[in-house]
Amino acid sequence: MNAFKRKALATAVFAGLGIGSAHAVYQDANGLGQALIYPYYTVQSADGNSFNTYLSVVNTTNTGKVVKVRFREGKNSREVLDFNLYLSPNDVWTGAIIPASSDSAAGGRLITSDVSCTNPAIPATGVDFRNFQYSGAFDDGAGTTLSRTREGYVEMLEMATVIGPSLTAITHGAATGVPPGCASVQGPGPNALPLADQAAPTGGITGTGTLINVNNGSDSGYNAVALANVTAANIYTDIGSEVGNLAQADPVSVVITSSATGTRAYTSAWLVGIDAVSSTMMHSNVINEYVLDAATKSNTDWVMTFPTKRFYVTTAAATPPFTNKFTATGSCESFGFTFFNREERSATAAGGDFSPLPPTLVAGLCWESTVLSIRSGQAHNPSGTTSGVLGSANTLAVNVTTGNQNGWANLVFTGANALVGLTSQAASNTVNVTTGAAAAGAQTYIGLPVTGFMARTFNNGTLTCAGASCQGNYGSLFQHNYTDNIAPTP
Question: Beta strands of 214-261 (E only): which ranges?
């Protein structure tokens, strides 16, 4: 359902509830929003070849924007780098995450040749990711080395619109293509962006991520998840702070679901803003395909990222919808994994063994970004502790039987608190758009807030192309599909 229809539904429900013009966060199907979530970045190595991750963000509006860009490592969402990015009208910013060095223990490094203003300025040689938020006094037990920064995910959040003299300073010159006044919006303190040059955010940003393995010739890309209407307020924050994040969302959300019994619009009031954001990504099941064909030496990884998990899980406790506190081995969420081959044969898989097995994995999705490495015990499948496609170290092996080399799978969250889910406030409303039926009152969202994709490879080795040798490696990426479980269902 497109953004206009979502907004129209929200407006109608607001009117019925007496909410008026309240902001409500929703996941925009058209890919434009105020916040972007890039489910995965990596500079890990697969088959001895390191990945790079390329990022882009586009300002599709005629207004200037200041965007918080934040990189989070994949184990516990600890911040490894952040800065403020200034986008002039119709601007595009691009950057790349590369290994900081050839040492496999080294972390990631951000490089860019883009001239859009950032605070602080990014050096020509780039800036290395940092471990300050998971070492020393912040040690969470899951390791303190920079290698943790080699994979994770990215958040971008428009904090404010830029107006006045600062807009002139950040706008690219017609002749040079370079903003004339980046220095005026750099440096800590209120002078970086004067209050008079700030206005409420308006959304309209979009972005892409590309996972490229240059040496083996494979490349896959995805669209960032776009959250629109995160907040109506100006939430500009200076650099050097974790403030300026999704917890500042207005505590209202709109979620649209469709099933055989109708299309429903859930307008939910929440006690805190982060629950509103989580509700837009709450799913009970994750569905995607896999390919493990021997003839093409195919492998498949599923990326499973929980972008709001850190707000519910600490080293001391966990609150719904997450079940377990964070320890040295992560905060593990159990799940069932039922797979079907292309001829409808079915079985239930589990880590470290073959099917049939009980439907629940006790030690399951343990990290903020966990990569499921789907395997069938064939010679070309990975057998170690890293995944076959992305080389992820934050991985869980999921084994299917050798007779099921290709097909699709249905992953269901089974953790105790995932089955409790999130419950909205009483001032919520559900409308069955198909039938016109409505139900006022609290709603329950079952599952976990998740996003991600399936990445697969085909390897035909070295081929002969027009009399010369060429690479026969191919990569592709497909974002997950989901099943929602939200009650009531009028």
Answer: 218-223, 225-228, 252-259
C-alpha 62/C-alpha 33 separation (Å) is: 15
Q: Characterize the bridge pairing of strands 151-162 and 45-46.
A: unpaired
- Rounded to 5°, the CA angle 248-310-142 comes to 150
pLDDT in tens, 203-262: 999 999 999 988 777 889 999 999 999 999 999 999 988 889 999 999 999 999 998 889
CB 78 within 8 A of CB 423: no
Q: Are strands 395-399 and 369-375 parallel, antiparallel or unpaired?
A: parallel
> How far apart are the C-alpha atoms of 368 and 326, rounded to whole Å?
10
- Tell me the C-alpha distance between 280 and 257, whole Å: 11
Give the span between the Cα atoms of 82 and 447, in whole angstroms: 30
DSSP E strand stretches across 306-441:
333-341, 346-348, 361-365, 369-375, 395-399, 406-413, 422-423, 429-432, 438-440
- Please tell me the distance from the alpha carbon of residue 140 to that of residue 147, in angstroms, as a whole number: 15
Inter-residue contact 224 to 209 (CB < 8 Å):
yes
Q: Which residue has the tokens 């073959």?
A: 354
